[in-house]
Amino acid sequence: MAHAVQTKQISATELIDITFRRIDRLNSTLNAIVWECREQAMARARQADAALARGQATGPLHGVPVTIKESFAYQGSPNTWGLPPLKDAMSPRTAVAVERLESAGAIVVGKTNVPVMLGDWQSYNPIYGTTNNPWDVTRTPGGSTGGGAAAVAAGLSALTIGSDLSGSIRIPAHFCGIFGHKPSLDLVSTTGFQPGPWDGSPGYPMDLSAVGPLARSADDLALALAVLGGANGDDAKAWNCRMPAPRHTRLDEFRIGYVLDDALAPIASDMGALYETALSELGKTGARLDRGWPAGIDPRTHLNTLLYLLGALVTADMDTAERARARGRFGKDPNDIFAAAAVEPHARWLHETQRRLAYRALWQRYFESYDVFLLPPTVTTAFLHDHSEPIGNRVIETPAGKRPYVQDIPYWTGPATLAGLPATVAPIGRTGDGLPAGIQIVGPMWEDGTSIEFAALLSDRLGGYAPPPEKLV
Question: How many domains does the chain have?
Answer without folding.
Answer: 2
